[in-house]
């Protein structure tokens, strides 16, 4: 199974799920998600990562500086820290869940924003996925998923806590894993003969 994470661009915008592109939760009234994504892409650059499995779009994450997310200040746990990017949406197609691909998307996002000089990713999680609030804002990721991929709660709330992932920690974890894999698959040297 081939897996790759790529930056969101105008050319691959159509690979963001239709359900996510139809959600208007984060944008201004009257501006649809495609329009918001195109505007953010042109003004700020890549604002998402897409995951392809065997050439099929399997998932995505969308993110931007809080200034590009008009409704971010509407949460009780606002504001987002000035050194952070806001993770506004994420989705992984059902057949691909539970295989570590969500973490792969988060790592792709971390790599992108670290290169831009940001120190962290923040997100408003939802504690009751499938509940009334989540039905109004399906783009909110479950808090338990965010915590499972390394986010920590920085501002508790009964329904929408704010969580944070420090980029340095994420990239260090990835480097440690890659080093361990390299060691595992490195050619083994025969022991030197005893003299």
How many E strands? Answer: 7
Report, as a whole number of angstroms, the end-to-end distance. Answer: 47 Å
CATH fold call: Aminopeptidase
Overall average pLDDT: 82
> SSE string, helix = H, strand = E?
EHHEEEHEHHEEH
Helix-strand makeup class: alpha+beta
Count of DSSP-assigned helices: 6
* General shape: globular
What do we call the CATH homologous superfamily? Answer: Gcn5-related N-acetyltransferase (GNAT)
CATH architecture: 3-Layer(aba) Sandwich
Describe the protein's architecture and organization:
It is a single chain. With 195 residues, this protein is an alpha+beta fold. It is built from 6 helices and 7 strands; from the N terminus they run βααβββαβααββα. The chain has a single domain, classed as Aminopeptidase (3-Layer(aba) Sandwich). Helix content is 31%, strand content 22%. It has a 7-stranded mixed beta sheet with strand order 1-2-3-4-5-7-6. β4, α3 and β5 form a beta-alpha-beta unit. The longest helix has 19 residues. It is globular and about 40 Å long. It starts with a strand and ends in a 10-residue tail after the last helix.
């Amino acid at each position: 199974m081939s897996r790759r994470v790529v930056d969101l661009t105008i050319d691959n915008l159509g690979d963001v799920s239709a359900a996510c592109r139809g959600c208007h939760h984060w944008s201004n009234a009257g501006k649809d998600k495609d329009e918001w994504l195109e505007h953010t892409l042109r003004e700020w650059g890549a604002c998402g990562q897409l995951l392809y499995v065997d050439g099929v779009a399997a998932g995505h994450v969308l993110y931007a500086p809080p200034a590009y997310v008009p409704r971010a200040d509407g949460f009780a746990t606002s504001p987002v820290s000035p050194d952070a990017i806001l993770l506004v949406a994420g989705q992984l197609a059902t057949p691909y869940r539970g295989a570590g691909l969500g973490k792969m998307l988060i790592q792709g996002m971390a790599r992108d924003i670290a290169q831009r000089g940001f120190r962290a990713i923040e997100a408003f999680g939802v504690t009751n996925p499938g509940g009334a609030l989540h039905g109004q804002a399906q783009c909110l990721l479950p808090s338990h998923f965010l915590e499972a991929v390394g986010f920590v709660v920085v501002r508790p709330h009964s329904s929408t806590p704010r969580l944070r992932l420090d980029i340095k920690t994420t990239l260090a974890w990835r480097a440690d894993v890659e080093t361990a894999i390299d060691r595992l698959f490195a050619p083994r040297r025969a022991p030197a003969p005893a003299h």
